[in-house]
């Protein structure tokens, strides 16, 4: 779960920055963000995990497997979160921006106090889906020796010669975690809906 939470935090922060860059009127800001999003969405996460864990040491950068997993999943999820955030930000009426400019509000204050609360309400359902995907993608981190649930199940299945039971147990562990995330989504939606009204 630590890998999922760390990855989501990286994804949320970088995703918002990428969304703002992608929405910029300046091409020098917009195009690198667009390229990053395209690259991360167009490459398999497992390849990126291998690059971080096995490829970076050849460049003199050694990452612990858990750190490579958190960074890899976080950087990958940021691309998807960026598009969710960009869509949510663009769904807020342009009049909100214009009104804040008329009141001479600084850009970052407008974003924090007016735009983000409205955009967050719209972004919560798809962000929840991304978080569920991250939770499930942690099983891929076993390929870079991260001792997580799926890898432990593989070890026990090999020792006990009962793979089917172990993999069903893994599924029955991931499922309630995703149910809890869905319940959290409902609470956040209610909270932000009340905030907007």
UniProtKB/TrEMBL annotation:
One of its GO terms (cellular component) is ATP-binding cassette (ABC) transporter complex. It holds the Pfam family BPD_transp_1. One of its GO terms (molecular function) is transmembrane transporter activity. InterPro entries: AA_ABC_transptr_permease_3TM, ArtM/GltK/GlnP/TcyL/YhdX-like, MetI-like, MetI-like_sf. It is found in: Cell membrane. Keywords: Amino-acid transport, Cell membrane, Membrane, Transmembrane, Transmembrane helix, Transport. The chain crosses the membrane at residues 35-56, 63-82, 164-184. Residues 1-185 form the ABC transmembrane type-1 domain. It comes from the Bacteria. GO terms for biological process: amino acid transport. It is a multi-pass membrane protein. The keyword Cell membrane applies. Coiled coil: none annotated. NCBIfam families: HEQRo_perm_3TM. Belongs to the binding-protein-dependent transport system permease family. This is Putative amino-acid ABC transporter permease protein YckA.
